[in-house]
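Deliverable D2.4 — example input (structure tokens):
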């Protein structure tokens, strides 16, 4: 079975803006109120996808959410025409208007958790959309996410879709941002590392004090049960509370793994040695841990640069490429660590590629946030529905689509403009045609 990992990147939505909605996300909070450039954001994302495709990596595309979510505003008591709903929300509850205009679905690492068929007892790839209940603006996403995934991975003989976990604090689920699959190669049975911030039931009470811990152990365990994973295939590790309080709201801001390699910061896990020992015990191939000590990169530098929110990509010759945001070059300690500690060290990382994703970074998302990793066999890739695997033709159409429909300036005050809502619906309707997804948005379902 020829397993290959596909990075499905989320397209940046037309309402990309800086509303500072994510408490605990330092970059998002610090850029609140700035003027955003949705067109540039979408084109930066597409450029990253195209460059990786050109380098031989399999690349997919996922559509953004329908925003503004006028249905959510109506459920909260705002009535009348679309223009009236937007106007009232802007006057009476501007924080709700910002939330229903969020373009955070671009960070598809939060969209779902995926288990490849090689690990599942029924031989199918499994998907669970994340409930994202820790923040209202993301809680609005799972229904559409589920329809999109079901549309693309539609073959029930090969793909299994599970319901979203109960949207309660006890089962707070943030998706693949807190999940890493480790194996010698993609076709080898893997071990699933689930990282949580807190326990809802029991535990010793040790938790972050400044920022909330979003993922619960109970949510991670439930997803693993849905996918049929055994104890021998799973490791549950608590994220270090100090990291969360420094702005590491997801594990993928402090650790990234692929194949047998786990690149992580010294303060990533509360029990570093216990986590490594559990992985080594379960993996069929030797684990290759690449540890970055706090003396080399401080927590503040890790968060500011998003060094660990980079894409770690496997190459056919056994080496790995690390795709980092441009901010890594701007921090001397981080850049020195990349050159002297990673590239010059005894590990498979042989190349560092720098990508400009500043529009995303200002809202708190680096290269790794922008993609959902799905390992598929050749037969599973052939069974995909829609037109979502990137090639030159699709890339060209998507660039032209963005240039037709996206604004190059969007301030938080512009979110009340009814023309923006109309522009977005027209753009998304055209996009589902380009991607051949059928009706996945609320406005298309009636």
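Example output (designed residues):
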């Amino acid at each position: 079975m020829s397993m290959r990992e596909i990075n499905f990147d989320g397209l940046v939505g037309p309402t990309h803006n800086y509303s500072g909605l994510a408490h605990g996300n330092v970059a998002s909070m610090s850029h609140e109120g700035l003027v955003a450039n949705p067109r540039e954001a979408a084109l930066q994302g597409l450029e990253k996808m195209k460059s990786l495709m050109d380098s031989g990596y399999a690349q997919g595309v996922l559509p953004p959410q329908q925003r503004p979510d006028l249905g959510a505003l109506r459920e909260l008591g705002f009535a009348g025409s679309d223009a009236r709903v937007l106007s009232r929300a802007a006057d009476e509850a501007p924080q709700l208007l910002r939330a229903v205009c969020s373009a955070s679905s671009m960070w598809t690492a939060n969209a779902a958790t995926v288990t490849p068929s090689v690990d599942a007892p029924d031989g199918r790839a499994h998907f669970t959309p994340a409930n994202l209940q820790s923040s209202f603006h993301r809680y609005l996403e799972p229904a559409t996410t589920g329809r999109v995934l079901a549309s693309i991975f539609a073959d029930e003989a090969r793909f299994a879709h599970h319901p979203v976990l109960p949207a309660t604090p006890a089962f707070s689920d943030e998706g693949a941002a807190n999940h890493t699959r480790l194996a010698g190669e993609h076709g080898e049975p893997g071990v699933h590392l689930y990282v949580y911030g807190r326990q809802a039931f029991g535990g010793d009470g040790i938790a972050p004090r400044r920022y909330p811990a979003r993922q619960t152990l109970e949510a991670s365990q439930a997803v693993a049960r849905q996918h049929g994973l055994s104890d021998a295939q799973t490791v549950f590790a608590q994220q270090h509370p100090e990291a969360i309080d420094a702005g590491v709201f997801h594990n993928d801001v402090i650790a990234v793994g692929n194949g047998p390699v786990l690149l992580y910061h010294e303060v990533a896990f509360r029990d570093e040695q216990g986590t490594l020992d559990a992985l080594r015990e379960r993996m069929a191939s030797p684990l290759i841990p690449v540890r970055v000590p706090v003396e080399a990169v401080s927590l503040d530098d890790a968060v500011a640069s998003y060094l660990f929110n980079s894409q770690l990509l496997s190459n056919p010759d056994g080496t790995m490429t690390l795709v980092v945001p441009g901010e890594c070059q701007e921090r001397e300690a981080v850049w020195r660590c990349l050159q002297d500690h990673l590239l010059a060290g005894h590990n498979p990382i042989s190349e560092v590629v720098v990508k400009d994703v500043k529009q995303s970074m200002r809202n708190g998302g680096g290269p790794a946030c922008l993609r959902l990793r799905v390992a598929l066999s050749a037969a599973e890739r052939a069974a995909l529905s829609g037109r979502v695997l990137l090639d030159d033709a699709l890339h060209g159409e998507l660039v032209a689509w963005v240039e037709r429909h996206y604004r190059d300036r969007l301030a938080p005050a512009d979110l009340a403009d009814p023309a923006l809502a109309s522009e977005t619906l027209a753009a998304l309707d055209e996009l589902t045609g380009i991607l051949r997804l059928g009706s996945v948005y609320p406005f298309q379902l009636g």
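The CA atoms of residues 112 and 175 lie 5 Å apart.
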